[in-house]
Amino acid sequence: MKLIFLGPPGAGKGTQAERIAERFEIAHLSTGDMLRAEIRNATPLGAAAKAYIDRGELVPDSVIIDMVRERITRDDCKNGFLLDGFPRTVVQAEALAEFTDVDYAVNIDVPSERLVARISGRRMCPDCGAAYHVSMYAEPTCRKCGATLYQRDDDREETVKNRLKVYTEKTAPLIAFYEAAGKLVTVDGDQAVDAVTESILKGLGA
Ligand code: AP5
Fold it and tell me: Cα–Cα–Cα angle for 131, 195, 138, nearest 5°?
């Protein structure tokens, strides 16, 4: 199974990707998590990416495409993978189609007025990448691995506004791209977390 998750910042892509990847026993590949790991490890790629991420801009296509092309050749992707946050531009989608074929693109649809509240209340685990919302889990440490949770730098209000604008301009056109390819599954992301998971599984025929 090869899946793509589409949706605006804060739609719940990461939250759902973790559950769906576990269900299908496939690798969960979040390009955002990969870039944040590069920044934490102070690599040249991380240093270059940080300036874009902090402004809420997209990292250049060539960098991301090379990163994903290499990542999906690893052993843990033999059974399939779920791409969370890639592709994000038509150029990325066209490049992906050249190196692999995906089964479905799942579009998690959430009204824009809900997104800022979701993002501003998010707390992340630096070690395992789990995301929480303060309204659902208010502890300071990760429920799964015990690491101290933190708030992402790009979750500040001004940056969030730009991320939403960039999403509308550059990523939303992918909905029509995958619809034309007959691969689009759209689910209502404005429901409880479990209900969204059920809708995705139903949309995938599982
Ligand atoms: P990335 O990390 O991919 O961020 P994003 O797409 O902006 O998405 P988010 O992680 O903000 O949200 P999410 O949809 O995963 O929501 P979550 O599940 O956490 O990318 C960050 C940056 O990296 C980009 O801006 C860009 O610079 C760069 N980048 C990454 N990929 C790139 C690419 N391909 N090309 C170029 N640049 C790239 O949920 C959000 C919150 O809501 C959480 O608190 C969660 O607990 C809560 N929540 C989740 N579901 C529900 C629900 N059903 N009800 C209520 N609350 C919920």
Answer: 35
Tell me the mean pLDDT in the region 158-164. Answer: 91
Q: Check if 184 has its Cβ closer than 6 Å to any atom of ligand 1.
A: no
> Which numbered atom of ligand 1 lies nearest the CA of 190?
53
CATH superfamily of 2-110+171-203: P-loop containing nucleotide triphosphate hydrolases (3.40.50.300)
With CA atoms as reference, report the closest residue to 3 among 76, 101, 73: 101
Q: Which amino acid is at 73?
A: T
Q: Which atom of ligand 1 is nearest to the CA of 52?
A: 27
> What's the pLDDT at 194?
97
Q: What is the pLDDT of residue 5?
A: 98
Q: Is the pTM of this model over 0.85?
A: yes
* Domain ranges within the chain, ordered by starting residue: 2-110+171-203
